[in-house]
Each structure stands twice: as C-alpha cells, then as structure tokens.
Amino acid sequence: MKSPREKRELLEAARNAITGYTAVVLGIVCFILALMLLMAATRFIAGLSIAATPTATGQTQTVVVGPRT
Amino acid sequence: MWQRLSFYDVRIIGHYLGVLILVSAIGLLAPIATAIIFGEWQPLGRYLLAAGIFLIAGSALRFLSISPGRLSRQQAMAVTGLAWLALAFFAAIPLAGSGHYSNYLDALFEAVSGFTTTGASIVRDLDHLSYADNMWRFMMHLMGGLGLVVIALSFGLFGKGGASLFNSEAHSEHIVPNVVQTTQFIAKITLTFIGISTVIVGLVCLGLGIDPARSLLQSLWLSISAFMTAGFVPMSQNVMYYHSAVIEAVLVIIMLLGCINFTLHAEIMKGRIRDFFDDMEVRYAALWLGVIVIVLTASLAGSRIFSDLPTIERRGLFMVFAAFSTTGFQNIASPQLTDALSSGAFLILALLMAVGACSGSTAGGIKIRRFGILVKNIVSTLKEALSPDSARVVTMYNHAGKRVVTPGLIREATTVLLLYGVTYIVGAFIGIAHGYDASQAIFESVAMASNGGITSGIVVPGMPASLELFYLFEMWAGRLEFVTLLALLIQLVVSLTPSRFLGWIHAHNEAREKRARR
After folding, report:
1. How many helices (H) and strands (E) does chain A have?
2. Percent of chain B topping pLDDT 90
3. Residue in A closest to B290 by C-alpha
4. Chain A residue numbers touching B268 (CB-CB < 8 A)
C-alpha cells in the first residue's frame, strides 16, 4: 500500500515524464517537418539549376542492328 | 609493462562469462514460448536443446571460481570483450539448425549481427523463417542493444565488479551514481518505449489487414529493432513490405528516441526539457542532419528514379534517419542503392553511418559527441592563439549541465576516431581485394564497423568466408568501440607469449633506451 505522499510523488513523476516526452516528440516532429521543407526548397533550387543547364545538342545517330534487308 | 593473465584471472573471467551465459539463457524463453504458442515443434526442439547447452556451459564456467571476489579492470575488459563472442557462438546453435543458413559461420554472423545491433542479415528465405527463430533474432537485438552486462547488472549479478564491467562495455556515463540503478533505468525506458511502439505499430498493421497474431509479432519485432537502433526486419522486403508511410513515420520517431543519450532520457523524465534542447549532441546532430539533407536532396535531384520531391522526402528522409541512427532499416532495395541512387547519395548514407548518432544510446558509429569535442578543441585552440599569453581558455559544452572539455576527452575522441577510420579503410581494402566495387566495399565496411547494417549487396548468403570473418570482427570491434577489444587482444597475445620471449623483448628495449640516453 502506498502512502498518499508516495502516490503524489508518483503522479508528479508521471506528469513530468509525460510533459517531457510530449515536448521531445513534438520537437522531433517539428524538426522532421523542417527538414522536409528544407528538402523541398533544395529540390526547387536544384530543379532550377538542372533546367538552366544547357543540354548538349548533337546529331542523332541511327544505329542499325542486324543486316540491312 | 603488459600484464599477463594468470590462471587465477582466467578462472575469474570464466566464472563471469558463465554468469552472462546463464543470464542470456533467459532470453531463450521468448522463442520457446513462441514455438509452443504457434505449434512450431521442430524449432521448439532446437531451442530447448540450445537452452540446455547454455545452462550446462554457463554452470560449468561458473564453477571455475566459486567465490570470485571483486573484478579488476583487466578482468572486466576480458569478460566484456569475450562475452559478446562467446554468447554469439552459443546463440548461433539454434539458428544453424533451422535450415535457413548455409553453414554455421553464416549463423554465427547472424548472431553477431544480432547482438551487436548491426542488423545485417544473411538468412536465406527470411519470409518463411519460423516465428520462434525470428523471435530469437530480435531477442538478440534486445539483449545486445541493452548490453549484456547491463542486463546482468540490473539483476545485481556482478556485485562489486559492476562498475568496471559497465564502463568496459562502452557505456560512458552513469545516469545515477549507483550502477545497478542506472542499468535498471535503461532497461525500464527501453521496455516502455518498445511497449508503446508495439501498440501503435500493431494497430496500424491491423488496419493494413495483417492478422492479429502477425500484427502483434511484427510490431513487437519492428519496435525492438527501431528502439535498439538495430536493423533486423521480419520480412525480406524490409519496411517496404508494409507500404505504409505511417509505420515508417512511427519507426523514425522511435529510432530517433533510441539514439538519444540515456542521461538525457533521465532529464526528460524529470521534466527538464531545456537540458535536452540545449545538449551539445542534440544541437550538433540537428545541424549535421540539416546539412546532410541539403546535400542528399541536391544529389538525388539528378538521379534516375528518386528525383521527384515526394520520393526524396519519403525514401530519402527515411534512409537518412535509418543511417544516422545506425538502425539500418531500408525502404530502398539493396540493388537500388548502387543502381538507382546517385553515387553521392550512396556515399552520404555511408558517411551518416560512419559518424553515427548520440553517445550513451543504443546507436553506433563514431558518435556526434566526439566530433563535438573535436570541434570545441579547434575553437579552443583558435581562442588560445588569439588570446594574450596570460589568458587561460576554458571550453565548456552542454550535457545535462555545463561540462569542461578536458585533454582526456580530446585524447579519447581522437583515439576512437582514428581507430574507427583505420577500421573503415582496412575493411574497404579487404572488400576490394575480394573483387567488389570500391564504393560498395567502403559502404559495406562502414556499415559493419559502425553497426549501421544497411547493406548494398555484399552481405548475402554465399559471400566469401574470409570477408565474412572480417566483417564479423568489425561488428564486434565497433560495438565495443575498439579500446576494450584491442586491450583484450593485447592481453591474450601477451598471456600466450612465452615469458622467456617477453623477457628478451623487455631486456632488448631497456638496452636500446640506455644507448639512446648516452
């Protein structure tokens, strides 16, 4: 049987733990969302860079495989 | 200079190895119960046999010394170093008889991968492995992730030798002054998070249509693997089997909670949230991940298959967290790591595993704390260069309060960094010597030594035995963070060297020093 004081201490410890881990998990979730935004921004900038890179223009070659009929 | 192990030391070491083997036999209850519940009679026979072997061997070793007394530091290092290998030898016995491993060496590799929480699997036909065998694989993760010594200490089995053993298992911090309470705290946090994760992932599995028994087992196994940052999975398609972004998201959160220092867990439990967000490792890890994500995204933008944003965000981010935490889950197939990912992205994953996550957690790698210490050292050196001669520069860092960066910390960080680096390079050379592509060899060597476990296709059934043995050594060395293992190897060599030969070396060295002084 736990005394009322021990029960109070247990409740307070549980409250601290729940508050602590809720804050940490929320922090992790916010961090993940921030990383996703960072990825989106980087992808957008990388996409602009890829689009702006001039592609090499050259003649297309026709390759014949096998004997000509 | 080098202390030899005497016969008395060997008996003490044998006694404590016996204790650890007996404690580990408790883990066999899980596969035995699983086999009974699911009517897997052939696996039941194997695990009962294994339990018998564990009990006989453990008891026999215990009787080497009836009242062993206090462990010295050298004895503690030997016990810790040998325990991981000895337990793997015994743990491989039931696996070898399952028919899913080509030979005993493959089963031993799986056992070492399990205990060291590497998670690189060499099993054949994983999808048809019995529930009992799978349960044993994940029990090895649980025992290895907690630490074999931690488990024994939490039962108060080592008496006065506990602190030495605890430190020699690469646990750098005591959360509370009493080592037994520290280990009990670690065990309680671990089991609580595994329980919560099992419920959440289990409900998602039920929602996906998986039957209740399999949902419970798979959620339990995935939760153990995620919090222990280990990496075994119950299905051959890894987490792709579930096609569930929700499961992947939950696993990411559990992996990140698993790679938080247990001292910080103690602070979080007391409601001291500020200590967590102010911690040097947490901040440096956030910065490191931010930089990595930018480089990875830029690299993937030009790849063939993984260039669109939703794919980069889901698969890229999941792989980043799996590699950073050295868990080793994959939502990209192993062949795609080399074929479809850009080479830059491939090497970024290797770098993430090499650096690792937070110290004092279940994660592997060199650890962010060591890099943080070295960065602080660089800042301190620059400050000293710019300060007047009379100034005394003291560098501090945050970890559950302010701490001083001491020369001892810098020396330890540099030593371990060098040892990891050398091991990564030697492992890469050995992989190249076996005919593998250089980037693949580097990746695989890093995955083994950092206990990361993401495999690019070298670790498969039928891999060369010599390479398998070296990777086995890398996993073992990485789990013990080298110092314990190297100390053990030196002790063994010195102890086995004839004393006349050692005396000759000692006399030769003394004569050389005398000539140098003249």
Report:
1. 1, 0
2. 59
3. A35
4. 17, 20-21, 23-24
> Are B394 and B322 within one domain?
yes
B310: closest chain A residue by CA: A40
**Where is average pLDDT lowest: A11-15, B2-6, B453-457?**
B2-6
Residue that has been written with the tokens 């060899």 in this structure: B441
Interface test with A, best of B193, B309, B315, B320 (most A CBs within 10 A): B309
Is B200 inside any structural domain? no
Q: Please tell me the distance from the alpha carbon of residue B165 to that of residue B71, in angstroms, as a whole number.
A: 8
Residue-number span of the structural domain to which B55 is assigned: 1-171+461-518
- With 80 as the cut, is the pLDDT of residue B179 above it? no
Average per-residue pLDDT for chain B = 88
Does B381 map to a domain? yes
Into how many domains does chain B fold? 2
Residue type, B386: L
| Chain B residues near residue A29 by CB distance under 8 angstroms | 253
ipTM of this complex prediction, to 2 decimal places: 0.86
| Residue B188 falls inside a structural domain | no
**Strand, helix or coil for residue B455:** coil
Phi, psi of B404 (to 5 degrees): -95, 140
Rounded-to-integer distance, Cα B140 and Cα B28, Å: 9
Name the helix (H) or strand (E) containing B403: strand B402-404
Angstroms from B314 CA to nearest CA on chain A: 9
Q: What is the mean pLDDT of residues B441-468?
A: 94
Per the CB < 8 Å rule, is B286 touching A31? yes
CA distance A8 to chain B (A): 15
Contact between residue B129 and residue B457 where contact means Cβ atoms under 8 Å apart: no
For residues B156 and B218, what is the distance between their CA atoms, to the nearest angstrom? 32
Question: Is B418 in the same domain as B517?
Answer: no
Q: For the segment B423-448, what is each residue's pLDDT rounded down to a tens digit?
A: 999 999 999 999 999 999 999 999 99
Q: Which pTM was predicted? A: 0.88
Chain A residues whose CB is inside 8 A of the B188 CB are none
Encode B53-122 in three state secondary structure: HHHHHHHHHHCCCCCCCCCCHHHHHHHHHHHHHHHHHHHHHHHHCCCCCCCHHHHHHHHHHHHCCCCCCC
Here the tokens at position B461 are 């059934």
Cβ atoms of B45 and B87 within 8 Å: the answer is no
Residues B466 and B451 in one domain: no
Query: B377 and B491 share a domain?
Result: no
Residues of chain A numbered 15-44 and touching chain B (CB < 8 Å): 15-17, 19-21, 23-25, 27-29, 31-32, 35-36, 38-40, 42-43
Q: Is residue B262 part of a domain?
A: no
- Domain end: B421, B445, B460, which one? B460
Residues B438 and B451 in one domain: yes
Same domain, B307 and B456: yes
Nearest residue on chain B to A53, judged by CA atoms? B302
Whether residue B167 sits in one domain with residue B43: yes
Last residue of a domain, one of B443, B460, B477: B460
